[in-house]
Design a protein that fits this description.
Largest sheet: 2 strands, antiparallel
CATH topology of the largest domain: MetI-like fold
CATH architecture of the largest domain: Orthogonal Bundle
Helix content: over 70%
Oligomer: single chain
Radius of gyration: 31 Å
Number of domains: 3
Structural class: mainly alpha
Length: about 425
């Protein structure tokens, strides 16, 4: 009845062209109404998802500290051979630039940025800033600065300024994958003792893969059992599966600290039944991290599996057994392939959530169990290096997009084969 009421009323003898135009106008109004209903959600997603992602990617390649604070110095160093200390004009330029900074916070931001390139730059810049003003001819300014701190005569500090003179830089992204630019601007691998993030990224993927495997191992039989129960019993038990969603992650992590400690319930129970003679090391190591992450992420594996398993007719297994297949072979050859979409969706969801974990490894893991998110938080809150933090965040974003693209490609391939 509602559909009939939405069709425009036209005379019975209306020409076909007018009828088509009326239907087109009605369809256009329907589309605009649908767009108006979804517009608030689109604006919300734009403001809370797309804009922060664009800002993150921009900050990962933005390098404003040196370009904003030392514009004269950057111009004076243009054409410098970067082998020995520059000419006196560069000394006069940096003295003038430092004298133009509004306050010490701007000098501090410049000093922190240069200190990430070469150790000691922070004290060099701040010491010179506190000694301002330095006036005179370029030669006099150079002599005064060298007298103030002889390190101004060393080329590496000037190289750091010249290297970061551009407002945009790939240095943060290169550092996030253990690469860097040399003095000449060529990309090279970092020294072996400075390579860290490639190993941290592999560790993040390794922990996430292990957590995903154990979630699948535990969730598959549980989801299958729930799918075989009557709807009322399955709904009641599903509430128990969803209970972790109603509890704060910090509360759950604190509970696992109590359970896994040397005198905790787990060790006492294992010793009480005689399986172990002394407490196991389950806390502040990889074992504790994996146990807690599996517990937290298990519902994200159960729900996709359960939704897919509910759609698989139980007659398939009975038909396979009636045709001569053993129950076990029928399960793995007939039933399991029907649940591949749920396995893929659950594994992808758990893995993507796991690679971004921070609180659980930080509280339950040791120094060698921290994932990439821990270092993003460290660069944000401790090092105050937003560029590096955003570069590491961009690495996680790219990894997530690549995983999703691989999942989509695999899913399309399975559909085409099916």
């Amino acid at each position: 009845m509602q559909a009939a009421m939405s069709v425009p009323q036209l005379p019975a003898e209306a020409p076909p062209g007018e009828l088509r135009r009326a239907l087109a106008r009605a369809e256009s109004r329907r589309k605009w109404r649908a767009f108006a209903l979804t517009a608030p959600l689109l604006v919300f997603l734009l403001l809370t998802l797309l804009v922060p992602i664009v800002a993150l990617l921009q900050r990962a390649v933005e390098n404003p500290e040196v370009a904003n604070a030392l514009p004269r110095t950057v111009r004076a160093l243009d054409g410098w051979n970067r082998k020995e200390a520059p000419a006196a004009a560069a000394y006069a330029a940096i003295a003038a630039d430092l004298g133009q900074l509004p306050d010490s916070s701007d000098a501090g931001a410049l000093a922190r940025r240069l200190n990430t390139e070469i150790a000691g730059a922070r004290s060099l810049v701040m010491g010179t800033f506190r000694a301002l003003p330095i006036a005179g001819t370029p030669e006099e300014v150079k002599a005064r600065m060298l007298e103030l701190d002889p390190r101004w005569g060393e080329a590496p500090y000037w190289q750091a300024i010249a290297k970061n003179g551009s407002r945009w830089t790939p240095d943060y992204l290169l550092a996030s994958v253990d690469l860097r630019r040399d003095v000449a601007g060529e990309v090279e691998r970092m020294p072996a003792d400075q390579r860290a993030f490639a190993g941290i990224l592999l560790r993040t993927f390794n922990i996430s893969a292990v957590v995903t495997f154990f979630c699948l191992l535990l969730a598959y039989p549980l989801a299958w059992w729930l799918s075989t129960l009557p709807a009322r019993k399955a709904n009641v038990l599903m509430i128990l599966v969803l209970v972790p969603f109603w509890t704060s992650i910090l509360v759950r992590v604190a509970a696992w600290i109590v359970l896994l400690q040397s005198e905790g319930l787990v060790n006492r129970g294992l010793m009480g039944i005689g399986l172990i003679d002394h407490p196991l090391a389950l806390l502040f190591n990889r074992t504790g991290v994996i146990i807690a992450m599996v517990h937290i992420l298990l519902p994200f594996m159960i729900l996709p599996l359960y939704s897919v398993m509910k759609s698989v007719p139980s007659t398939y297994l009975r038909a396979a057994v009636s045709l001569g297949s053993s129950p076990l072979a029928a399960f793995f050859r007939v039933y399991v392939p029907q649940t591949y979409p749920g396995i893929g969706a659950g594994a992808l969801l758990v893995f993507i959530l796991a690679i971004g974990y921070y609180v659980t490894p930080a509280l339950l893991g040791g120094a060698d169990d921290q994932m990439l998110s821990y270092y993003i938080a460290r660069y944000t809150n401790v090092e105050i290096n937003w560029g590096m933090a955003c570069a590491l965040g961009a690495v996680l974003l790219v990894a997530t997009l690549v995983l999703y693209a691989v999942y989509r490609r695999i899913g399309k391939a399975e559909l085409s084969l099916g």
